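Exam revision sheet. Question 4 asks you to relate a sequence to its structure. Input first:
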Amino acid sequence: MTDNNIRKYISNEFKEITAIFKQISNSKSKEEVKKLASSGIERMDNLKLELKKITNTPNK
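Answer key, structure tokens:
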């Protein structure tokens, strides 16, 4: 991945995660909140793994 692609990827992921949190704050349904939270956690985990690959940080 080029530096520019890495920046775009990280920026896009943060935008997506932020959008999920906004949906959670606007949600009225407990089930929808659970589904959105699960999706947000998955995206954050994937971003964390990608950042570890990019920075060559070992998994703990």
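Marking note for examiners. The mean pLDDT is 91.
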